[in-house]
Amino acid sequence: MIKGCVGFSHVKGHFFGNMILVRGKRTVDIKLPYPIMLIMARLWRNDNFLGKFFYRKRTWQDQLDEAKSL
Description:
It is built from 3 helices and 3 strands; from the N terminus they run βββααα. It is α+β, with helices and mostly antiparallel strands. The chain has one domain. A 3-stranded antiparallel β-sheet has the order 1-2-3. Strand 1 (5-10) and strand 2 form a beta hairpin. The longest helix has 12 residues, at 34-45.
C-alpha cells in the first residue's frame, strides 16, 4: 500500500490526474500524467505487490520486543 494514499481522481478529458495523500490533518494532491496514474492506481489496489516491494514487514518477535519496551 502506498503510505498515506487514500485514492485517485481524474477529470475526463484532462491529461493529468491526482493522487490524494493524507499528511496529518491535511491532504496533498500530487499531479500525475494519466498513464502513470493508471499504473499507480492499479498497484495501490493490489496490497500484496506493494507490501512486498516497498516495505519490509517486521517479524512477530520484533513487534513483541517493541511492545515490551513501551
